[in-house]
Structures are given as structure tokens and as C-alpha cells.
Amino acid sequence: MYRAVIACVFGLICTSAQAAELRILTTGAMKAVVLELVPLFEKETGHKVVVDNDTAGGVSRRIDAGEAFDAVVNTPAGLSALESKGKVVGGSRANVARVGVGVVVKEGAPAPDLSTVDAFKRALLAAKSVAYIDPASGGSSGIYLAGLFDKLGIAAEIKPKAKLKQGGYVAELIASSEAELGLHQISEILPVKGVKLVGPLPAEIQNYTIYAAAVVTDAKQPEAARALIKLLTGPAADSVLKARGMERPPA
Length: 251
Hints:
Blueprint: H1 2-10, H2 12-16, E1 21-27, H3 28-45, E2 48-54, H4 56-64, E3 71-74, H5 76-84, E4 94-99, E5 101-106, H6 117-126, E6 130-133, H7 140-152, H8 155-158, E7 162-165, H9 171-175, E8 181-185, E9 195-200, E10 209-215, H10 222-233, H11 238-243
Parallel strand pairs: 1-2, 1-3, 6-7, 6-8
Antiparallel strand pairs: 3-10, 4-10, 5-8, 5-9
Helix pairs in contact: 1-3, 4-5
């Protein structure tokens, strides 16, 4: 079934374009999705895909600095800023997915109560250590959580026991017992072994981050980049997104 879908997506691009190396820079939250779809893309197009990742802020800085990539996956706000600077092709942006923040503990550890905002707050205060992305690194979840702790009135209590990660998977700090409780986007919790996703944040304080893809202005393979974006936004990606704890953003 997927072969038929991809054939429709790529159309004449697949039959007329020569094999090329396509470079894509993505946020960490979307990395697993992109990597899972790469073999399908490579098989149907003959292109080779090289994937790199960073925090949302890191992605923006690297594209702005002129690093060589063909396609970029970032937040809509990040891509809008890059488009205003002429760094991504106007009109090439397409929303791909959204993901919420989840709570993670080590496999076998008791699961904290997340049924209400007050219960979530108590879980944070009871934890010996709390891991999340360093807001200074530009990670969208870390920036949101820093503001949330202030809003909940517990920033002072969290600060001395915070385990800040500059990028990558926060859940790795949980798996290695460097932190007791972790907060990160669900798509970046699920790939890590030795941990358990307790659940999403309570609905009242949940924060969804939307991710979009665009063609980089200086792309060496712009048509192949457009084809990859069509794959990311097409039906072949739906089951991959769902398995990674993500969903399509509202229209």
C-alpha cells in the first residue's frame, strides 16, 4: 500500500531526477519520525538522506548561519523568522505534526499521579530531582516548563533539584538514574529504553508544539526536499506519527 502512496507522492520526480544526497536538519522531537521514513524515501527515489538534529533554537541558529541543508523541520515561529530573513523558501512551509509534553520515570518506579494540576504539582515537589531541557539551549519544552513552574509558584523549589539537559533525550537522565522524574515532549520519551511514560501533562496545562517543514533557500536539492516534505505530510507518515506519540495539527 505504501509503495502506491509514495509513487503518487513523488510522481515524475522519481523517474526523472538523478540520485542525490539530501540533507535535512530537524528538531529532536521530529528526529525519530524522519529517520523512520527515510528508508522508504530512499527506496522509492534513489536519493540518500543525511539527517542531523538540534533543539528548536539550535536549528534556527544553524540555518541562519548558513549551514548547508536542503530541508528543515522546526516550529512554525522558527520557520517564519527564517523566511523573513530569506533563509527558507517562501510558500514551501507545511505543518507536519504536533506533540505534547509528558512525564517519564524509570522502568519499575512508582508512577506519580497526574490526574489533576495539583497532583502534578505535588509529584514535582516530591521528586528528589526533575530533569528537563535547559531553556537556555532553545528547546521549546524547556522554555515552556520554566514558565509553567513560575505560574505554578514552584520555580524556587524546582531550581535546586533541576537536572538540565542541553539537547537530546531527557529520558536518558532517567534511564541512567541521574534524575528521578523527567519532563519532555512525548515523542522524545518513547524511543528511550529503560523508562516509562507515565502520561501527558494535565489538559489544563498541556502545551502542544507544532512542527513544520520547509525548503532551505540555498538547497542544492530543492525538488527532492519538496518530495520529502510531501512524504512527511502525506498518509504514509500517519501511522509513524501515531506510534511516536504525535498527531496531525488542527487545520
